[in-house]
């Protein structure tokens, strides 16, 4: 039995235990790094979403103002009763009958 296979403090030690611990530590480190990257990505995504919501609100307000301006101009350009001859059934004097 080799020294690494002997028990240390009541625990059996395998020759590759050190490798397993190192690999486990590498995996844990990689997972921690990935977690931090995902948190940064989430934070950046939330910031972008906030900016887009603000932009959407601003664009909606601008469209409402434009729509209102269009309505006003259409109303101003629409012919009114005073612009067209009246044909409401009232007879006009016939110039030839006088």
Structural class: mainly alpha
Please state the oligomeric state of the protein chains shown.
single chain
Binned, the helix content reads: 55-70%
Give average pLDDT, whole number: 80
Order of strands side by side in the largest beta sheet? Answer: 1-2
| Largest sheet properties | 2 strands, antiparallel
Provide the succession of SSEs.
EEH
The coarse silhouette is: rod-shaped
Radius of gyration: 42 Å
- Counted beta strands: 2
| Model regions low in confidence, pLDDT < 50 over at least 5 residues | 1-8
State the end-to-end distance: 140 Å
Which percent band covers the strand fraction?
under 5%
Number of helices: 1
Structure description:
This protein is mostly helical and 98 residues long. The protein has a domain at 14-78. The chain has one helix at 17-77; strands at residues 7-8, 11-12. The chain has a two-stranded antiparallel sheet with strand order 1-2. Residues 1-8 have low confidence and may be disordered.
List the defining traits of the structure above:
mainly alpha; 98 residues; 2 strands; single chain; two-stranded antiparallel ribbon; disordered N terminus
Topology:
Layout: E1 7-8, E2 11-12, H1 17-77
């Amino acid at each position: 039995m080799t020294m690494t296979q002997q028990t240390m403090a009541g625990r059996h030690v395998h020759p590759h235990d050190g490798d397993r611990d190192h690999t486990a530590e590498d995996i844990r480190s990689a997972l921690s790094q990935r977690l931090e990257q995902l948190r940064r990505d989430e934070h950046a995504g939330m910031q972008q979403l906030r900016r887009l919501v603000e932009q959407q609100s601003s664009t909606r307000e601008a469209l409402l103002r434009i729509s209102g301006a269009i309505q006003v101009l259409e109303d101003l350009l629409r012919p009114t009763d005073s612009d067209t001859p009246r044909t409401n059934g009232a007879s006009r004097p016939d110039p030839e009958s006088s």
